[in-house]
Amino acid sequence: MTIETALRSAMETIPDCIAAGYVDMETGMLLGINTLDSDSAEVLDSLALAVANLFQGRGIKAFEELLRSAKAEDSGNPGFGEIAVFSKDRLNIFLRTQEYPDHVVCYICRNSANVGLALTKSHLSLGPVAAAV
After folding, report:
1. Shortest CA distance to 95 belongs to which of 59, 63, 120?
2. Which domain holds residue 71?
3. Out of the domains of life, which is the source (predicted)?
4. Rounded mean pLDDT of the chain?
């Protein structure tokens, strides 16, 4: 199965999902994409570069260090595994893969999506999407 096929399959299960992308944070490259419209494709292209900063930026690193020093997080952990960002009209879900800690799957949903269901379904899709790489 190709990465695009895996992303398309994931999008079909995630409520109100309009775009999905697979990003390699080390290179900043978008390795796979599937969208319902061209506007979402443009957003994912620019988002690919921002994902590395989101997961590996100075602010996040400092926050993770605070958690580690307070013993609230395991020191062997590669960092945050997921980040959900709410914007005016979108829910953006970013999930780090366990198999490849430098890879992130991004899902963009309409703000009408049931947040709990979208997060659950995105987690369930993570394994098959990472296996397609």
Report:
1. 120
2. 3-131
3. Bacteria
4. 85
